[in-house]
Every structure is written in C-alpha cells, then in structure tokens.
Amino acid sequence: MTIGRVTTSQIWSSSTANIQASKARLSQLTAQSSSGLLVAKPSDDPVAAASILKVLNQQSANAQYTTNIADGLTWLSTADSTMTSSENLVRQAKDLAIQAGNSGTATPASRNAIATQLEGIRDDLLSAANTKVNGRSIFAGTSDAAAAFTAAGVFAGSTTTTSTTNGTTTTSTVTGSVQRRIGSEPTDLVTVSADGSAAFGAGTTASPSVFQQIQGVIDALRSPGYDTDTPDPVTGRTPKEAVTAGIDLLNTALTNLSAQHAVLGANYARMTSAKTQNATTATALETQRSGLQDADTTKTLLDLKTQELAYQTALQVTAQVIQPTLMSFLS
Prior knowledge:
Blueprint: H1 8-35, H2 46-102, H3 108-129, E1 132-133, E2 136-137, E3 159-165, E4 168-174, E5 179-181, E6 189-191, H4 196-200, H5 210-221, H6 239-293, H7 297-330
Antiparallel strand pairs: 1-2, 3-4, 5-6
C-alpha cells in the first residue's frame, strides 16, 4: 500500500482555502450585523432574494391600495356629510312650503318672508351640491366641469358620447363614476363619487332639479295672483296649487337624496372594511419579509464573535503548520 506524500504546496493551498472561507464567512456576518439584513443583495441567497422581491412587490401594491383607500374615504366622508346637510335643507324647504300652504290668511309680506328663507336654503343647497374634494366636484363624477350644477340648477357633470353602428349614430349622456382600487381582484373597485343628477335631479324637463323645485315654490309665493287664485298661463296651476305640487316634489327629492345617501353609506362601509383588511395584510407581508430578509441581531452577533474566534484560530494553526514545513524544506 502506497501512502501519498503531502507536499508543502498542498498544505499551503489547503490552509489558504480554509482561511479564505473563514474570512468570507466573517465578512458576511459583519455585513449582516451592520445592515441588520440576512439578504442584502441577490448573490447572498438567490432563492431567498427571489422570495423577498415577490413580497416587496406585494408590499408596494398594498401601499398603493392604502393610499387609494385613504383618498376614497375622504371622498366618501365628504359626500356623506354633504348628503346629510342636503337632506336637512330639503326638509327645511318642505316645512316652509307646508307652512306657507297652510297659512290661508298669510299676507304678501309673510309669504315673501318665507320665499326669502327658501332662497337662502336654495343657495345653501346649491353650494352643497357643488362641494369639492381636491379641486374636483364630488357630484360631477368623472366630468371636468368646474361645478356639478349651474346657477340655474342644471346638472353639468354629464359626458356626452356618440357612437355609430350600421350607419346609425347614437348620442348618449352618462355620468362617469370616480372609483378607487382597493385590491388586485377585478371587483376590488369602490365608487367614491355620488351621482349628482340622481341625487338632486338633472335640471331638465323630464327630471327637474331640487333647486328648480324650490324656485317654483318661491315664484308661486311671490306671484301677484296668489290671493286671487289666478292660474299660471303656462302650467294652468294657481299659485296655491303650485305650492302644493312643490311640496310633493320636495318629498320626492328627499326620497331621491336618501336613496343616493344609502348607496354612499354602503360604499363607505366597504371602504372602511377594506382599510382594516389592508392593515392586516400590511402586517402579514412585513412579517413575511422580515422572516426572509432581516437578521436576528442577537444570533448574528453571537455568530460573529464565534467566527472571529474561528478565523483567528485558523490563522494561528496555519502559521504553526506552515513554519516548520518551510524550515524542513530549507534545511
């Protein structure tokens, strides 16, 4: 049996390799201790780095959803409070109209006083309907209109689209909804705007706005023919009949406002729920990322001290082995 002779070159190569490996591990632990990260770059651990990148992308998307939710809640909370105040204003207008209708002996001065109050309510209601968030009207949908309603109470938030099919051109008017994405699924979209025409009326013949309805009561109360029951030449109604009709219209307007308010409430509840879920997801993703990327400070420091000792020991052992070998070679 032949036993191979270990040469000085082999000893040197083996010792150098051990020292380099120990030094590399020491450098790695030093970097981990300094940065607090197990994986600071892909080459540290390619498999873990790929998993970390995936989690970081998910965190980035979730952060965007957080921003969307916060913005959406601002829109919805503003719309909610505006709808509440609008409903209160319409109730006040209806009560004043009822008061005027029940006052059979009311004087022109008292009717004018009620009309003046109704003007104030109409103006306040119009201001509410033109409420904005970040410069955009919450009741004008995706329209670029400066205000959802004109001073005449006509809805200005619609967008007219034209399409041609088989030579037939169709024009339609729509109100786009402002939406915010709260998740990655196709259905994770929440409408944060309110349909102004559905809430307050479009201001057209087919759909008079609540502002026009209030104005109709104002005009009737100030009509010179109120006491003589002179019919209006256009509508055929007497001023008193116009006030009664106005009360019915305001009841309908209040119903429409309440219905749209309920839609807003449902969207607000969904957005609030999404906020809670989003926070839970953010915590879970951070825990996942930390488990993949963050170093255990206590363990890293302990490993670092152990590796420093191992490195120094490797240097000392190598020095002790190499020195006699060189002396033997020289002699």
